[in-house]
Amino acid sequence: MSHSNRCSFFFCLCLIATSAALPAQDIPVKNRNIHTSLLPVLQNLSSNSQWKRISATPLRFTSYHTQGLTKINGFFYLTAVKVIRWPKRYAQLTDGYDRDNGEGEGFLFKFGSDGKLIDSTTIGEGVIYHPGGIDYDGKYIWVPVCEYRPNGKSLIYRVDPDNMQKAKMAECHDALGAVAYNRDNNTLVGMNWGSRKFYKWKVMGTNDEMRVQPVSEQGIKNPHYYIDYQDCNYIGDGLMLCGGLKTYKNPHDGSVFKLGGIEVIDMSSYAAVFQFPVNEWAKPGTVMTNNPCFTEMVNGQLRFYFVPEDDQSTLYTYVLEE
């Protein structure tokens, strides 16, 4: 969600995804595939480190407005919003909103490394149709979907990557642009419109008995301002790596520049423990961290995947060389 609008603060409410009776005590989720932190490798980088493109694979389907990306067992999962009518700005604030809902449809796509579409599902309901940045917990993909406007309501889904079946797990009275799942303590962290606030939920139970409980009901202010996070994924040791950008305007001549970057955020303190600029571009004006971003370790090297362009997109694969 490439916006820097500041949001009002709202109270987040969670829905139980099933009507099945639950025990009174909390039921912890078994940790899933906890992996070694990527932070030590990232910290070996320097200002002399270079982005090296190793592939550019055109997606062989209409991708609409791309949002979030993850990779599971060799397959890629991409969220996107098909905009039917763009939200229209009001002449003045109306009921706390600066624009109407617009009209659209949210998607989660599954595709192969060759860019061929394998499966897809719609996600969201009614005016809540804008999916955001996603993450994988070792079993499910977690997907936030919001109204396409600041302060709008959101729903959080979990999706089974094998059959694309989805379950609505929570709702939030703020526009969530991305989520990340901490596999070490089974907490879900969400970022609102422009990533100006963090929210957190505790995930308990399994399968049909899974439920989420808000931890930071009022949200926590993001102390970092130079980029807005678009997509985040868990990298171990209680940390998430977020890719994003921010548009800066030159007050003298009106020209604009989109600064891209990645940040590693501590999911408990919300402090940035690593920051690195992204100065690679898909085309003029479109930095690689424009929206979806996923990171993994392959053969001892950090590998980054980006899908910055809309509609007729390309999956760009990079390594960062020390």
Write structural notes for this entry.
It is a single chain. 1% of the residues lie in helices and 52% in strands. With 322 residues, the chain is mainly beta. The chain has one domain: Tachylectin-2, Chain A. The strands form seven sheets. Strands 8, 9, 10, 11 and 12 form a five-stranded antiparallel beta sheet that branches. The radius of gyration is 19 Å and the shape is globular. Mean pLDDT is 89; it is low at 2-31.
Short description:
The protein is an all-beta fold. The chain contains one helix and 26 strands.
CA(first)-CA(last) distance = 30 Å
CATH topology, which one? Answer: Tachylectin-2, Chain A
CATH architecture: 5 Propeller
Shape: globular
Mean pLDDT: 89
Major beta-sheet overview: 5 strands, antiparallel
Structure classification: mainly beta
* Proportion of helical residues: under 10%
Oligomerization: single chain
Task: Tell me the count of domains.
Answer: 1
Report the CATH C-level class.
Mainly Beta
The low-pLDDT segments are 2-31
Number of helices: 1
- Number of DSSP E strands: 26
What is the N-to-C order of secondary-structure elements (H for helix, E for strand)? HEEEEEEEEEEEEEEEEEEEEEEEEEE
Strand content: over 45%
